[in-house]
Amino acid sequence: MLTLDKEQATTFDYPSLNISIQETFAAIDRFEWQASDELRLMRDKGYYEDAGHKSFEAYCESELTKHGGYRRVRDLLSAKKVVDTLPEELREKITKPSQTRSLLRLVKTPDKLSEAVAIAAKEKPFPTAADFAKAVQKVVPKNTSPTRTSSTKQEKVKTQLCNSVTVSSLSHPRYGDSGVIEADAPNNYQQIVTFSDGERLLVNNSDLTDLNAAIVSESSERTYPKEYTEAIAAIEERHKQELERLSQELRIGLQAEVSATAEAQVQEQIQSLQNLYKQQREQNVQLQQRLDEMESLRQLETENQQLKQRIQDLENAVEQHPLQQWGNTMTQQATKALNKQVKLALEKTIDLRSLAQEPPKENAQECLRLMGMALKNLASAMNNTQALEAAALILGSEPTPTAIAYRAEQLEMLPQAVSDIRAVLAKAGCTWQEFCTVAQEYEVIKSDYWAELTSEETELIKSLEIAS
To answer: Are β-strands 200-204 and 208-210 bridged in parallel, bridged antiparallel, or unpaired?
Structure first.
C-alpha cells in the first residue's frame, strides 16, 4: 500500500498504482471483518461494562457514534453471522459486509442461503450486492418469508395485527420480510415497522409494498410529536450550517484558483514581452550595423559616380576638340600630370595583386573586400581588364563583374557571420544544434568564416560535432 500525496501522485506508473489501489481495498475489507470479530468479543464477553456502559447498544452509541453507531455495528455483526452460516468453500465469495444485506433473511435456512450464494457465484467469480439480491429472489420469491415459523403464537399475532407491509427494496437488509405498523409515522416519508422477530425499524415508504392499504396518503397537515419536531429542526439547522460552510469553502477555493490562474497568465505575458523586447533590441542593433555599412557603401558609390562623371567630361572634351592645340604651357603640363597620375593609379591598382598573396593581418578580409570593390569600380570606369583581373584575384572569384559583385556581397556578410558564431560558442552549455542553426545561415561563406575563427573555436566546434 502506497502513501499518496498531491506532490507524489504524478510520479506513479499504472502497475504500481493499480496494485496499491487493490491492496487498499483489500485492507479495508479485511479491517471490516476484523472489526466485526472484535465487536462480537466486546458484546459476548461484556467488556463494555468495565467502562460503565449499561448495555452493548449504549457502548456503540457512546463510543462509536462517528463510525455509524449501533446501526452499523448491527450490520457488521449480521454480516459476520451470514458468513459463519455458509460452508467453508462459499465464504470467500463474500468479500465485504455490505454484500450480506440481502442474504440476512436466509440465515435461519442455511441450505437456501448456500443455494443463493452458489447461484450468484456461478455467474460471477466475485458477485456484488445486487447479484446476491437477485440470487435471493430466485431462491425465495417475493412476498414469502422463510424466517416465519408455524407456531401457534406467531399465527395468532399475524391474524390479529393490521396494516401489514412488506419490504420490497432489494438493497434493504430486511428485503422480503413482512411487518406491521403499530405507531404513527414520524413524517410523511417513513413508517415505523415492527417485524415478526420483534425488531422495530424506520423504513422509507418507497421501500415498502402496501398489502392492505396500510400507508395513508401524504398530507401537508400532518402533525409530528414534539421530540420528532425538535430532532427534525436540529437536523435541518445542522444541514443548513454544513451547506453554508461548504459553500464558503467552495467560494474561497474558487477565488484562490482564479487568482493563481490569473497570476500565472500575467507572469507568462510578462515573460513573453521581455523576450520580445530582447529580440527587438537585438534586431535593432543588427539593423543599425547594416545601416552603417550601407551608408559607407553609399558614400563609396557617390565617390565612384563623381569619378565616373569626371572621366566622362574629359572624354567629351577630347572628342569635341580633337585638333585643338594647347597653347598654354600650363595646360599641357597639367595634362601630362593628369596622365601621369592616372597611369600611376593604374599601376598601383595592378600592383594590388601582391595584397592577395599576403593580405594585412588586421581585418584582412574586410580590407581585401574593399580593395577588390575599388578595383572593380575602377575597372568598370576605365574599362581596364587588368584591374578587373586583380579584383577577381583579391576576392577569389571569376574575373567578371557579376561574379565579383556576388563575391563582394558574400564577404560583406563575413563580419556578422563571425560575430554570430562566436556569440553562440561563448554561451555556457552550447550544443551542436544551436551552432548548426546559426551556421546554416552563412553556409555559402563557410570557408571564409572558418578561416577567421581561432584554433580554440574550431576545436570547440569539432568537439560539439563529435558529442552530438
So the answer is: unpaired
CA distance 101 to 123: 19
Q: How far apart are CA 275 and CA 182, in angstroms?
A: 81
Domain endpoint, select from 158, 181, 216: 216
Same domain, 401 and 425: no
Query: Distance between CA 127 and CA 151 in Å, rounded?
Result: 36
Cβ(197)–Cβ(178) under 8 Å? no
Q: In what order do the strands lie in the sheet with 178-181?
A: 200-204, 190-195, 178-181, 164-167, 208-210
225: pLDDT confidence band, cut at 50, 70 and 90? low
Cβ 141 vs Cβ 105: under 8 Å: no
Q: What is the DSSP letter of 358?
A: S
Name all contacts of 35-40 with Cβ < 8 Å and 24+ positions apart: 35/76, 36/76, 36/77, 36/79, 36/80, 36/97, 37/80, 39/73, 39/76, 39/77, 40/77, 40/80
pTM: 0.32
Over its C-alpha atoms, the chain yields an Rg (Å, rounded) of 52
What span, in angstroms and rounded, lies between the C-alpha atoms of 463 and 432? Answer: 9
Q: Which residues of 266-291 are buried (b: 16+ CB within 10 A; e: fewer)?
A: eeeeeeeeeeeeeeeeeeeeeeeeee
Same domain, 392 and 446: no
Tell me: do 394 and 457 sit in the same domain.
no
Query: How does DSSP classify residue 147?
Result: T
Residue 183 covered by a domain: yes
- Tell me the C-alpha distance between 249 and 82, whole Å: 43
Q: Are residues 439 and 388 in the same domain?
A: no
Q: Which residues contact 399 (CB under 8 A, 6 or more apart)?
A: 388, 389, 391, 392, 393
Residue 364's pLDDT band (boundaries 50, 70, 90)?
A: low
Residues spanned by the domain of 151: 141-216
Contact between 127 and 99 under an 8 Å Cβ cutoff? The reply is yes
Nearest to 425 by CA among 443, 438, 441: 438
| Residue length of the chain | 468
Name the domain count of the chain.
Answer: 3
Is there a single domain that holds both residue 363 and residue 458? no
* 200 DSSP β-pair partners: 194
92 Cβ neighbours under 8 A, 6+ residues apart? none
pLDDT per residue over 13-52, tens digit each? 788 777 887 777 767 767 777 787 888 888 888 888 888 8
Residues 6 or more apart in contact with residue 268 via CB below 8 angstroms:
none
Name the residue type at position 214: A
